[in-house]
Amino acid sequence: MLDETVRKSHRHDILIVTGDFNAKVGTYPKHYDSVMGKHGEDEKKQLKQDKKNWLEAKAKEAEEAARNQHTKTLYSIVKTLTNERPRKSTAIKDKENNIITNSEDRKKRWKEHFNEILNRNEPVNPVCEEEAPVEEIDSISTDPPTLEEINKTLKSLKNGKAAGVDSIHQTQSLHLVRLNNC
Q: Which residues are CB-contacts of 74 (< 8 A; sequence separation ≥ 6)?
């Protein structure tokens, strides 16, 4: 609108523009957008979009790491996204409950602590392997498990628990047994 007014005025006329450029004129922003401009709104939108894209890329990377069981990568991504810093404990107490702040004294206290825990005296009455009773197993059945044994084992498992090392849940095992019995 201002550009249009400037074009209509004569070259020899003096043009003085006054007014509140922060005020909204009318209900439609078309009139003042051409005069004022957006003042960084595009940059703000671009920054928001860039942040959103970065977060989505990190989320996809985390999903991929979880799917491939790359826990180290997953942990580092979560750590980056949560922006948490590891807390370092600098306060250590000596045997009299006084706080040690000097790093040399802390090292000495840690050494003393681990020497007490790890370096122990020999037991007064050690257990000999010859004295310990050992039960002998007569025989172990190598036959395949019966259906009754499988059902008993599966019923002893709890529902909703995590899968074992074979990555098979208890409910999946139950369905497998039922399918094989039909």
A: 62, 65, 66
| Owning domain of residue 109 | 88-119
> What 3-state DSSP class applies to 141?
coil
For the full predicted model, state whether its pTM sits above 0.70: no
- Does a structural domain hold residue 77? yes
| Judgement on whether residues 63 and 92 belong to the same structural domain of the protein | no
148 found inside a domain: no
Residues 117-152 pLDDT 10s: 888 777 777 777 666 666 777 778 888 878 788 778
Label residues 81-119 b or e (16+ Cβ within 10 Å = b). eeeeeeeeeeebeeeeeeebeeeeeeeebeeeeeeeeee
User: At what angle are helices 170-181 and 147-156 packed, to 10 degrees?
Assistant: 160
On the question of pLDDT at 154 being above 70, the answer is yes
